[in-house]
Design brief:
One of its GO terms (cellular component) is membrane. Pfam families: adh_short. One of its GO terms (molecular function) is 3-oxoacyl-[acyl-carrier-protein] reductase (NADPH) activity. This is 3-oxoacyl-[acyl-carrier-protein] reductase FabG. The protein is α/β, with parallel strands linked by helices and 277 residues long. The protein has a single domain, classed as Rossmann fold (3-Layer(aba) Sandwich). It is 44% helix and 12% strand. The protein contains nine helices and seven strands. α2 crosses α7 and α8 crosses α9. The radius of gyration is 20 Å and the shape is globular. The structure holds NADP nicotinamide-adenine-dinucleotide phosphate.
């Protein structure tokens, strides 16, 4: 190999250095779970920066409030349950109508939690958590892909959890759903790279939202304690930065990083620490 070839190879721009950013101004975006918490903050941030946001959740009146506070036309509410295939079709139809079929960003954020021992829970709890947190976003993504492929800098942002990296007791259904989202995101990222679509996995730790008021199939005696919760606004700002930079994955909060990296380094120690007495 000649010296000039080696020099050209060594000085070529590294792909990760000249990564294309997602420009929110004029972008067509979809955010599920838009009626509260992280999703609501993301809708406000995206619409404030010039994006059109198809905002999805079941609580219609919350979406209407969101629409009224934004610049006219920037928030398009779609009220419905994402586990319903017809609702998913209408989300994509509405988004595809904004700019000739192209969609720039899909944020799979809607999610529910459940707390309590697996052995005592009903099969319905596992079914509901997996339907909302995994099957619905996966199927919504499947029908969005051909529209995302028409964007110059598309992103699928999956709002997962640090519990999709390290599981803990009494949240088995939730951990399973977020592990599923994690594995699926990694696979999809590799598959969609040739089509120019990035998959950004965002893993927050405990967030001070309505999440713990909306737990499914969970007794009032089941609670979860945590220190150092982030506000939804802070999580959304960090998620937004990762999305616009089209990063592959981001783990939020020091505590979250400590949990995930300690588990990667020494899983047996984490297993011993988390074992129920
Ligand atoms: N809070 C935490 O501690 C925490 C930590 C790590 C990760 N996360 C993840 O962050 C994401 C957002 O949670 P959050 O903390 O912002 O909670 P949140 O305030 O409870 O928001 C959840 C959103 O999901 C929507 N949603 C739930 N089920 C739905 C369904 N079947 N169809 C359509 N929308 C549905 C809710 O709206 P409607 O009720 O109006 O439908 C709501 O807008 C979730 O994926 C969650 O797993 C949360």
């Amino acid at each position: 190999m000649s010296m000039s070839v080696i020099c050209r190879w060594a000085t070529r721009p590294a792909k990760w250095l000249d990564r294309v950013r997602l420009n929110p101004d004029g972008a067509v975006t979809i955010v599920t779970g838009a009626s509260s918490g992280i999703g609501r903050c993301l809708c406000e941030m995206l619409s404030d920066r010039g994006a059109t946001v198809v905002a999805v959740a079941r609580r219609r009146e919350r979406l209407e409030e969101l629409r009224q506070r934004a610049t006219v036309g920037k928030i398009i509410p779609v009220a419905g349950d994402i586990t319903d295939g017809g609702v998913r079709e209408s989300i994509i139809d509405v988004a595809a109508n904004v700019r000739g079929g192209a969609v720039d960003l899909l944020v799979n954020n809607a999610g529910v939690g459940a707390i309590g021992p697996f052995a005592d829970a009903s099969p319905a709890r596992l079914r509901e958590v997996m339907e909302v947190n995994f099957f619905a976003p996966a199927e919504l993504t499947r029908i969005a892909i051909k529209h995302l492929a028409r964007s110059p800098a598309a992103v699928i942002a999956n709002i997962s959890s640090v519990l999709g990296h390290r599981a803990v007791p009494n949240k088995s259904e939730y951990c399973a759903s977020k592990f599923a989202m994690h594995g699926w995101s990694d696979s999809l990222r590799a598959e969609l790279a040739p089509r120019g679509i990035q998959v950004t996995l965002v893993s927050p730790s405990t967030t001070d939202s309505e999440f713990f008021d909306a737990l499914v199939h969970t007794g009032a005696d089941q609670t979860s304690s945590s220190i150092g919760s982030w506000t939804p606004d802070r999580v959304a700002r960090a998620a937004m930065a990762a999305i616009l930079a089209r990063r592959s994955e981001v783990i939020l909060s020091l505590g979250g990083k400590a949990l995930v990296y300690a588990d990667r380094i020494a899983p047996p120690i984490m297993n011993a620490i988390l074992k129920q007495k």
